[in-house]
Amino acid sequence: MVCANATGNHRLPLLVIGKSKKPRAFKNINMNALPVNYYAQKSAWMDQTIFFDWFHKVFVPQVKVHLAEKQLPHKAPLLMDNAPTHPSGELKSDDGNITCLFLPANTTPLIQPMDQGIIENMKRRYRKYFIESLLSSDEAIGIKEFWKKYTIKDAIFNVASAWADLSVSNLKNGWNKLWPEIIPCESEETEPVSVEEIVQLCNNGLHSEILSTSEVTDWLENDKQDGGFEILNDEQIILNVTAVEEEEIDEDVEDSDVDLKPLTSHSEAEAMLSKCIDWFEVQEESNATQVLLLRQIRNIAAKKARESKNQTKMTDFFL
């Protein structure tokens, strides 16, 4: 789920829903390092429980911080479509200053800001990153083998990158139909990923049959009518409720065929990051902020490597 304000200067991290609370691809990783808010649901669909939790634990706190930073009144509405998975009753923060308002029925494709090209633009960028990941993989690995190794963690970081790449102008222009009086954005708008761009990327890089424009278009739009939820009957609701305990135990439903990579040691990470810095410093795309960030990360690895060596030396006294 995507969420951003009308001025385009506050986009919340994406809400991503998977089937497992702890997929194998998440093993040993710091969950705080994920660039999204991750939730789990048996069918990987949005439901009222997830939405309610996200509203109170993610949306409200982050909006309050943003309003405080901008020195704005602590009041804000969250505009939502009337999907059946969203709470039907009144939903507001504990202090009542942040409320959830629902758009009229059947108006989502007409005026819902995120549906005015924002979601489509993000999805196309995600698919472009997916193709680029495939092209960057081992040439000996076929498409099917790559797909098997492509994890939910890979998908999360690619879709988060796609969301982050949307410009302020992209986000702001999504509100034009609902709020035409808003001041036009002066920042440069990110060019949307075109069908032709994807066709060229696929046909120039993939060693397979030539793809047509219509085939790529079908792929880009195959989930266009996906509302992100499913309507359950009474029997399905009962099955979902009774399956909660089973879900608590079975935490590795997703990525069950993925072979976990061995952990990289601190010293190995330090060496690789040093090489990465040497490479990046001579690239024309590099800038001081990015180089400093890489060096900060390298220094973290170096510190942990030193601490690890010191711990080893201490144990020598007990041998």
Describe this structure in words.
- The protein has 12 helices and 4 strands.
- With 319 residues, the chain is mainly alpha-helical.
- The strands form 2 sheets. A two-stranded parallel ribbon has the order 1-2. A two-stranded parallel sheet has the order 3-4.
- Helix 3 (118-136) crosses helix 5 (152-165), helix 3 packs parallel to helix 7 and helix 7 crosses helix 8 (213-220).
- It starts with 14 loop residues before the first strand and ends with a helix.
Give the tally of β-strands: 4
Oligomer: single chain
Q: Please, what is the average pLDDT?
A: 84
Distance between the first and last residues' Cα: 55 Å
Helix proportion range: 40-55%
Strand content: 5-15%
Structural class: mainly alpha
* Total DSSP helices: 12
What letter string, H or E per element, gives the SSE order?
Answer: EEHEEHHHHHHHHHHH
What characterizes the major β-sheet?
2 strands, parallel
**Strand order across the largest sheet:** 1-2
Low-confidence stretches: none
**Gyration radius, in Å:** 23 Å
- Backbone shape: globular
Quick structural gist:
The protein is mainly α and 319 residues long.
Key phrases:
mainly alpha, two-stranded parallel ribbon
